Amino acid sequence: MGVLLERIEGKSLQEILDERVLGPLKMADTGFFLAARNRGRAATMYKLEDDNTLSHDAMGPPRISPPPFCMGGANLFSNRRRLSAVCANAAGKR
């Protein structure tokens, strides 16, 4: 879906989301990469191994520069407050 939107609009998925969703919802800190200054705020992803231990940072460090391809179904960084706003908006409570 993201690739289709990019081709129709002639813009990156990040630009489309910024203009149509993130901007209107005032979600300036939401995107497909983190500013280097915000990297320490990213939650660590853990993976449960076969021996029932957790491996640290299973997804690797978050991107601090725009990715070559924005995947619409993954890797969108935000914060709890902004994510709650999106959910409330989608539920028609905002």
Mean pLDDT: 83
From N to C, what is the helix and strand string?
Answer: HHEEH
- The overall strand count is 2
Which percent range describes the beta-strand content? under 5%
Strand order of the largest sheet: 1-2
How many domains? The number is 1
Unreliable stretches (pLDDT < 50, length at least 5) are none
Global structural class? mainly alpha
Radius of gyration, in Å, reads 15 Å
Q: Could you state the oligomeric state of the chains shown?
A: single chain
Description:
This protein is mainly alpha-helical and 94 residues long. The protein has one domain. 31% of the residues lie in helices and 4% in strands. It contains 3 helices and 2 strands, in the order ααββα. The protein has helices spanning 2-9, 13-22, 80-90, and strands at 47-48, 54-55. A two-stranded antiparallel sheet has the order 1-2. A hairpin with a 5-residue loop joins strand 1 and strand 2 (54-55). The longest helix is centred in the last third of the chain and has 11 residues, at 80-90. It is globular and about 45 Å long. 7% of the residues are buried. The mean pLDDT is 83.
Describe the structure concisely:
With 94 residues, the chain is mainly α. Helix content is 31%, strand content 4%.
Task: Produce the secondary structure layout.
Layout: H1 2-9, H2 13-22, E1 47-48, E2 54-55, H3 80-90
Index terms:
two-stranded antiparallel sheet; 94 residues; 4% strand; mainly alpha
